[in-house]
Specification:
Elements (H helix, E strand, L loop, with lengths): L4 H9 L7 E4 L37 H4 L23 E7 L9 E4 L10 H5 L2 E3 L2 E5 L5 E4 L1 H14 L7 H14 L11 E10 L12 E10 L10 E6 L17 H4 L2 H9 L4 E5 L7 E4 L3 E6 L2 E5 L9 H12 L3 E5 L11 E6 L3 E10 L2 E4 L8 H14 L10 E4 L1
Helix pairs in contact: 4-5, 8-9
């Protein structure tokens, strides 16, 4: 099965409204070297059992072992924050030097054994993904574009010299993990189940080299809003001293080191009362890149502009989805270099990401000057429209005409 075919077909069949246009404008200065070309090789399943590696398997099948998964967890769903909640099970599989991942297993959620000389601990050879599951009004569970996360992990794995699960194995593992932890999926409208796949170099190395063994894990946690403001304006500060990524680096892949490096600037910003940091490019220090863990969009009239993915910016799945939704609504979308000066004239600014979905920006401060949007008291019309359209689709409240959701029984 070719994942994404349904989506592409739907996009081709669905004619955007009059005036809708997507532009990829010429980049100046020149973009980074071409992105890595990924062949979607399907890794075969190894017969090497996890028990041989010291991993204990739950003693029952999905059909009978997860009886309590149909129960509802005893949580305060009305006050669910964005933090880790210990759930029941996690998925694990390993890959040796032959490049093949063993058949994955579901084990109780908890600590894992990791060699202190592992590649991930010593050299940061690791990737992660993030996606969500939603409970619908008829008690079904929906995943949102899991194959896109699988493909992005494979792209990142090649950049980091790591093997990766096939798209099929990744998606199947996500399904298994969600079903095993079904009781932790929040009621409709109360939040979502955040799904965290991890790929790491778990084998021991001393000299700088790819690890000889890799571990792929998926765990989940019920979450509420990422920002405490929820769907309310957040306040950003433009960072012109620290940088998130540089040309030729790893800014376009979801490697773990990209996120530890933003903590200092984020800490300083929050101490000053800001919600997060908006980064500029490291070369010219004038073009928008992204927020610590979100993509950025600038609205002016009917035109929505967002920084082009050119090697230093993560190709967000929510970003990609919002672009398609915006086009379907008749907006013109431009993927290009966006100057920090354009923030002064913008009608609206918003962020996108798996954790935040769409987060409207109420103000941006740059070199001591504060610019407010939507009066800093409400959500902009465009931000609200795109948020409502996307979340309605994610939660099964609107027809999935793009084929983006995967329903679990």
């Amino acid at each position: 099965m070719e994942y994404g075919a349904a989506t592409r077909g739907a996009l081709l069949a669905a004619a955007p409204l009059a005036g809708a246009r997507r532009s990829r404008l010429p980049l100046s200065p020149p973009p980074s070297p071409p992105s890595i070309q990924i062949q979607n090789r399907l890794y075969s399943m190894s017969s090497l059992p996890l028990k041989a590696r010291g991993v204990r398997r739950c003693e029952a099948s999905l059909a009978s072992d997860y009886t309590k998964a149909s129960e509802v967890a005893d949580l305060d769903w009305e006050n669910l924050g964005f933090g880790i909640v210990q759930t029941d099970y996690m998925y694990i599989t390993k890959c040796g030097q032959d490049g093949n991942f063993s058949e994955g297993e579901m084990i109780p959620f908890g600590p894992i054994a990791l060699n202190p000389s592992s590649g991930v601990l010593n050299y940061g050879q690791g990737l992660f993904e993030g996606l969500k599951a939603y409970r619908t009004t008829d008690d079904s569970i929906l995943l949102f574009r899991p194959e896109e996360n699988a493909l992005r992990m494979r792209t990142g794995a090649e950049r980091m010299c790591m093997p990766a699960p096939s798209v099929e194995q990744f998606v199947d593992a996500v399904k298994q993990t969600v079903l095993a932890n079904k009781r932790w999926v929040p009621p409709t409208g109360k939040g979502s189940l955040y799904i965290r796949p991890l790929l790491m170099g778990s084998g021991a190395v001393l000299g700088l080299a790819p690890a000889p063994e890799y571990t792929f894990i998926i765990f989940v946690s019920p979450v509420g809003n990422y920002f405490k403001e929820g769907l309310a304006p957040i306040n950003l500060i433009v960072e012109d001293k620290f940088h998130r990524a540089t040309p030729g680096g790893t800014g376009s892949v979801k490697t773990i080191g990209n996120y530890a490096s933003v903590l200092m600037a984020q800490k300083i910003a929050k101490e000053k009362g800001y919600s997060d940091v908006l980064y500029l490019d490291a070369v010219h220090k004038k073009y928008l890149e992204e927020v610590s863990s979100c993509n950025i969009f600038v609205v002016k009239g009917n035109v929505i502009s967002t920084p082009a993915v050119k090697g230093t910016i993560l190709p967000g799945i929510t970003r990609k989805s919002i672009i398609d939704v915006a086009l379907s609504k008749g907006f013109q979308v431009e993927e290009r270099l966006v100057s920090v000066d354009e923030l002064l004239e913008a009608d609206e600014v918003f962020c996108t990401g798996t954790a935040v979905v769409v987060s409207p920006v109420g103000s941006i401060t740059y070199q001591g000057k504060r610019v407010e949007y939507a009066g800093n008291k409400g959500v902009g019309v465009v931000s609200q429209q795109l948020y409502t359209s996307l979340t309605s689709l994610q939660m099964g409240q609107a027809e999935d005409w793009l084929g983006w959701t995967v329903q679990l029984s």
